Amino acid sequence: MKKALITGITGQDGAYLAKLLLGKEYKVYGLVRRIVNRDFSNLVYLGIEKDIEYIDGDLTDEASLIHVVKTIRPDEIYHLAAQSFVGTSWDQPIVTSEINAIGTLKLLDAIKHHHPSAKFYHAATSEMFGNSNFDGIQTEDTPFHPRSPYAISKLFAYWMTVNYKESFSMFCVNGILFNHESPIRGKEFVSRKITDVVARIKLGLAKDIKLGNLDSKRDWGFAGDYVEAMWLMMQEKEADDYIISTGQTHSVKDFLDIAFKHAGIDDWSNYVNIDPRFKRPAELFTLQGKSDKAQKKLNWKPKVNFEELVKMMVDADLKRLKK
Ligand code: NAP
Ligand code: G4F
């Protein structure tokens, strides 16, 4: 039986990936940090919270990472843990860097010294591109120009992942994933913030929603599809980096339009207020990724389209709130 270690098991992707790996008969270990109220609700939502072996550790604590790697000796390590919210990264740039950049380096170094044959996946991001794009679409060759402390921390971790592969012949891959969402997406992200409030408005539990830049465009896909790509990358003979995206881009306004209409509310503009607090010091205007390399080499493609994704999320929030 193959052993997989997932950092970030309690997050959106950690939960979907754990479900996928359990279905493939892996023994799944999840790294969990010590916080007052541990939240396993994503794993509960997917019905797998009892099928995982949890192990204590924190990305900022090197000794705990060494202990985890030495004790489990996993075949595959999916490193998903991060301070993942771009907005917070301007308010907490140091903790963001300590977790995302230095934390990744600590984990890579623990693997190098204690279990170098493990395959390593790093959760890189389209945020690393910033606003640079050729012909309006980002590829693996598009230059990076990170525009937030989050993106900069991820770019450091991206290059460390490449460097450990090139320097120590370790199997290290970067998945450069564009935005992906689901019914268990954190409520601070714009997609889930919208679907949660749409459901509340529909049920008479809220009156309006405060948002920032409605003209931002993102390449939004479904998390369940994207974790499959992570696994496929780790099954390759040679470690390589891949963009994972749908190739389509939509604005926050498009998201609002579908979400409100799906709940039977025609004009979203009656419910949306612009609040400067939700605008970013430096914005990424449009993200749109070309995942041709992954489609060709990994035989991966997204199954859920944008409209289906938005409707799935609204339906899930309506169901949850009705309960
Ligand atoms: P998420 O829901 O925010 O989950 C983040 C996870 O990291 C949580 O399990 C959290 O644990 C854990 N974590 C945070 N700090 C930690 C620390 N110091 N030590 C150990 N664990 C820690 O994120 P996600 O959406 O699943 O994304 C997964 C990864 O992909 C992240 O690295 C993110 O930056 C990256 N990414 C995401 C997207 C996207 O659109 N979702 C796109 C590109 C890249 P707690 O429960 O203890 O907080
Ligand atoms: O949903 P968001 O917060 O996601 P963002 O910043 O694109 O980051 C997500 O995707 C990245 C991949 O590209 C990941 F690396 C990262 O970890 C995270 O998962 O914001 C999307 C867009 C932004 O342009 C933002 O300015 O929506 C805009 N927006 C407008 N009003 C808002 C709001 N975003 C949030 N969170 N809240 C608002 O009220």
In round numbers, the mean pLDDT is 97
Structural class: alpha/beta
Cross-sheet strand order for the largest sheet: 3-2-1-4-5-6-11
Q: Which fold name fills CATH's third level, the topology of the largest domain? A: Rossmann fold
**Helical residue percent?**
40-55%
Domain count: the total is 2
Q: What is the count of β-strands? A: 13
Concise summary:
Helices cover 42% and strands 15% of the residues. With 323 residues, it is α/β, with parallel strands linked by helices.
Show the helix and strand layout.
Elements: E1 3-7, H1 12-23, E2 27-32, H2 41-45, E3 53-56, H3 62-72, E4 76-79, H4 86-91, H5 93-114, E5 119-125, H6 149-168, E6 172-177, E7 180-181, H7 190-202, E8 209-211, E9 217-218, E10 221-222, H8 223-235, E11 242-244, E12 250-251, H9 252-262, E13 272-274, H10 292-297, H11 306-322
Parallel strand pairs: 1-2, 1-4, 2-3, 4-5, 5-6, 6-11, 7-10, 8-13
Antiparallel strand pairs: 9-12
Helix pairs in contact: 1-8, 3-5, 5-6, 7-9, 7-11, 9-11
The structure holds NADP nicotinamide-adenine-dinucleotide phosphate (NAP) and ligand G4F.
Residues 7-14, 31, 33, 35, 39, 58-60, 80-84, 99, 123, 125, 177, 179-180, 186 line the site of NADP nicotinamide-adenine-dinucleotide phosphate (NAP).
Task: Report what the structure shows.
The protein has 323 residues and is α/β, with parallel strands linked by helices. It folds into 2 domains: 3-180 and 222-244, NAD(P)-binding Rossmann-like Domain (Rossmann fold), CATH 3.40.50; 186-218 and 248-287 and 305-322, UDP-galactose 4-epimerase, domain 1 (Alpha-Beta Complex), CATH 3.90.25. Helix content is 42%, strand content 15%. It contains 11 helices and 13 strands. It has helices at residues 12-23, 41-45, 62-72, 86-91, 93-114, 149-168, 190-202, 223-235, 252-262, 292-297, 306-322; strands spanning 3-7, 27-32, 53-56, 76-79, 119-125, 172-177, 180-181, 209-211, 217-218, 221-222, 242-244, 250-251, 272-274. Helix 1 (12-23) links the parallel strand 1 (3-7) and strand 2 (27-32). It is globular, with a radius of gyration of 19 Å. The termini are far apart. The mean pLDDT is 97. It binds NADP nicotinamide-adenine-dinucleotide phosphate and ligand G4F. Residues 7-14, 31, 33, 35, 39, 58-60, 80-84, 99, 123, 125, 177, 179-180, 186 line the site of NADP nicotinamide-adenine-dinucleotide phosphate.
